[in-house]
Design goal:
mainly alpha; 7 helices
């Protein structure tokens, strides 16, 4: 089971990175519509989300049932000036965090996968569920990235 989860996590990250690296400079900052994020914003969002997920993994592994906070993804683009950020740096961050996460997961024992934490709304989760959520999250945004490219 754990090898399958790690493989799915690795593959989801690789797929997102592959799509992100294929985007031309001309399309990187084009939004499909005014309400949709540009490919650059999606990439920056994923870099920030991956950083948050990694911190959650570390806290669950090193603290007893920590409460992990979720971030306001709608505030980040403006407050963190996504339009001025370096897309290549965000892609590199995603790659680096994914590699570090996989290295971490490869050293888990059976108990580590089942360590528990709480979301900020008080719901209990096990670490393996958080890892699967990160996998689904990047898959969703890979699909969003592909759709943004198709619309441009």
């Amino acid at each position: 089971m754990s090898n399958e989860v790690i493989a799915e996590f690795r593959n989801s990250g690789e797929q997102f990175i592959k799509i992100a690296k294929s985007i031309s400079v001309e399309k990187m900052h084009k939004s499909p519509t005014n309400a949709e994020w540009s490919p650059a914003n999606i990439i920056h969002h994923m870099a920030d989300a991956e950083a948050h997920f990694y911190i959650r993994y570390l806290r669950v592994l090193t603290e007893n049932s920590p409460t992990t906070e979720f971030f306001d993804e709608d505030a980040y683009p403006e407050l963190l000036q996504y339009e001025k950020r370096d897309v290549k740096a965000s892609i590199a961050l995603i790659e680096s965090i994914r590699a570090s996460s996989i290295s971490l997961f490869n050293n888990f024992n059976d108990e580590d996968w089942q360590r528990k934490g709480f979301s900020s709304d008080g719901k209990e989760f096990v670490l393996i569920a958080l890892i699967k959520k990160a996998r689904s999250h990047i898959n969703d945004h890979a699909n969003q990235l592909s759709a943004a490219l198709a619309a441009n």
